[in-house]
Every structure is written in structure tokens, then in C-alpha cells.
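Page 37, continued from 36.
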């Protein structure tokens, strides 16, 4: 319904902005990431999501289209409403959220206020496949990907770590923390054990 607004900021009271557009003041709830990016600007453009419930009509605003897309994916998860989705986007930036879901990092997700371990696990289960299909681009137009590690030796290193007694998820998490894709299997194992 209302998908995009450009106007002058009249008031900032996190998480709410009062934005004047054509003489009308819109109350818009925004994640903290948006507040950090607008800092001292007086005129801004926001991608918006208009949410209607029985007892309220609320406008949510995002500085980037990617944040809006992720917000919409988050509120599709059963048990996650707009306020929780806003808290998640305030706590984690886009790349961190995508990586947390790709690496099944429920500990990081559950550090968000209002998210317990069960909700974090539900987010991972419901969003992992959906987020892989999303076409997001960061501010410098690079595609943000859920696939973090492309080293061909990663599978061998993971098998070796499992032979040492680590669970599959543990070994994947340890290996995903390594960004150098040119390491040998032995070097991967050594660094993974240091990352533990």
C-alpha cells in the first residue's frame, strides 16, 4: 500500500521517526540500523511496509530495500511479529543475520531481545531455504550470499573433525569461521581447532 516515502524528519525518538511528506506527518518505526545510517540527515527516503492488524495500522521504514525484504521474510515465520522482526534487524545487520541462519547459529540469534532458543531454531528451520533463494544486494551492489565457504578441502576437514569427536554442526561452524579459501585440509583443521 505505502511502499516508499521521501520527506523531512520532524522528530526522531527511536525506534520511531516522524516524517513529513507533502504536509502529512507519518509515524514510522525503524530498526536501529536505519537510525545509524540517517544519523544527522534532515531529508531521507525510506522503503516502507504497511502492517494492518485488527487494533492497529503501523508503518515500518527501512533505509535499504534489502532490510525491507528480510523484514517481510521474518514476519512470515510463525510466532515472529513485526516488533520481533524489528528487534532482529536492530540487533544484526543483513550479512550477520544471513550468516547466522546459514551456519545455524541459534546462540547468536537468541541474543536478540525477545528471541529464545526455540524461536531462534524455528527461524533457522523456516528461513534457511527461503533466504538462499533471495536476491539481495548490499550498498555496493555485491550479491549477498548464504554460501560462505567455497574451499574444496572443507568437506575433508569436516570429516576429519567429526572423526576427532565433533558433531557435524560444530565442525561446520568452526570451518565457516575461516575466510581463507586457499588453505589445505591440514591447515583448515588446525585453524578450525583454534576457532573452537
Amino acid at each position: 500500500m505505502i511502499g516508499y516515502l521521501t520527506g523531512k524528519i520532524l522528530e526522531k525518538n527511536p525506534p520511531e521517526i516522524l516524517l513529513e511528506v507533502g504536509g502529512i506527518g507519518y509515524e514510522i518505526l525503524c530498526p536501529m540500523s536505519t537510525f545509524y545510517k540517517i544519523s544527522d540527515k534532515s531529508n531521507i527516503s525510506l522503503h516502507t511496509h504497511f502492517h494492518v492488524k485488527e487494533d492497529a495500522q503501523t508503518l515500518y521504514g527501512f533505509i535499504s530495500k534489502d532490510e525491507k525484504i528480510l523484514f517481510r521474510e521474518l514476519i512470515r515465520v510463525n510466532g515472529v511479529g513485526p516488533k520481533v522482526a524489528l528487534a532482529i534487524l536492530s540487533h544484526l545487520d543483513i550479512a550477520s543475520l544471513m550468516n547466522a541462519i546459514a551456519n545455524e547459529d541459534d546462540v547468536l540469534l537468541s541474543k536478540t531481545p525477545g528471541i529464545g532458543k526455540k524461536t531462534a531454531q524455528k527461524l533457522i528451520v523456516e528461513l534457511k531455504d527461503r533466504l538462499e533463494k533471495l536476491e539481495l544486494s548490499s550498498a555496493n551492489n555485491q550479491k549477498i550470499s548464504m554460501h560462505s565457504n567455497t574451499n574444496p578441502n572443507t568437506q575433508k576437514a569436516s570429516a576429519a573433525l567429526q572423526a576427532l569427536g565433533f558433531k557435524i554442526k560444530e565442525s561446520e561452524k568452526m570451518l565457516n569461521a575461516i575466510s581463507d579459501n586457499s588453505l589445505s585440509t591440514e591447515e583448515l583443521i588446525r585453524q578450525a581447532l583454534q576457532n573452537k
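DSSP finds nine helices and five strands in the chain. Flag for discussion at group meeting. Residues 64 and 139 are 8 Å apart (CA to CA).
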